[in-house]
Amino acid sequence: MKKIKNKNNKYNFIEAIKLLKKISTRKFNESIDIAINLGIDPKKTDQNIKGTINLPYGNGKKKKIAVFSDKKKIIDADFIGLEDLAKKIKENKIKFDIIIATPQTMKIVGKLGPILGPKGLMPNIKFGTITNNIEKTIKKIKKGQINYKNDKNGILHLSIGKINFNNKYLKKNFQTCITTIKKNKPTTSKGIYIKKIFISSTMSPSLKINKNLYN
């Protein structure tokens, strides 16, 4: 990985992407990640934000999906079940990225709170992962739907693509993220909402994006 001469520079998005691609020497396909510092008080529940973003070009990550449902076959689901699926999760026998559950199965899923909660994997209505329309939700996820939720410091961490993506695709994904997040500004949050934006690849230092171009 080549070094960045001046880490304090502010870049527009395309400039930053071009630089990340230029300094990358890794043989694997790195992810492109953004961190957005928000002007919210994460200690106040009414200022925390979470939801979903439909990335136009996806983020290049294949996700394994576990589904709690009484259906025996669901298109594109990697794991399906009820108590049997809960047992596999408790025994750490399967690896998955997302859990989708019907409202009727939440009694079973709720018992997995101590396991799923700390990992951010608990199904949630705001994420669309508690639903009776399982197959529609899976299609959205496969097409590029991602979840977002600020951390305890009021920062959003999002993966918006891979380093081999077309620059225009990455920019469109980035703009979609910013637009969605701005629309969901808490009404109780005052002052500057998007304070700082940083972008990086998996192994690179972070570059500061000129947020004034996107506010």
List the helices and strands and how they pair.
Elements: E1 10-11, H1 13-23, E2 31-38, E3 50-54, E4 65-68, E5 79-81, H2 83-90, E6 98-101, H3 106-110, H4 113-116, H5 134-143, E7 145-149, E8 155-162, H6 167-183, E9 194-201, E10 207-209
Parallel strand pairs: 1-10, 4-5, 4-6
Antiparallel strand pairs: 2-8, 2-9, 3-7, 9-10
Helix pairs in contact: 1-6
Please give a structural write-up.
The chain is built from 6 helices and 10 strands; from the N terminus they run E-H-E-E-E-E-H-E-H-H-H-E-E-H-E-E. It is α/β, with parallel strands linked by helices. The protein has 2 domains: about 15-60 and about 145-215, Ribosomal protein L1/L10, rRNA-binding domain (Ribulose 1,5 Bisphosphate Carboxylase/Oxygenase, 2-Layer Sandwich); about 65-145, 3-Layer(aba) Sandwich (Rossmann fold), CATH 3.40.50. It has a 5-stranded mixed sheet. Helix 1 (about 15-25) packs across helix 6. The radius of gyration is 19 Å and the shape is globular. It starts with 9 loop residues before the first strand and ends in a 6-residue tail after the last strand.
Give a short summary of the structure.
This protein has 215 residues and is of the alpha/beta class. It has 2 domains: 13-59 and 145-213, 2-Layer Sandwich (Ribulose 1,5 Bisphosphate Carboxylase/Oxygenase); 65-143, Ribosomal protein L1/L10, domain II (Rossmann fold, 3-Layer(aba) Sandwich), CATH 3.40.50.
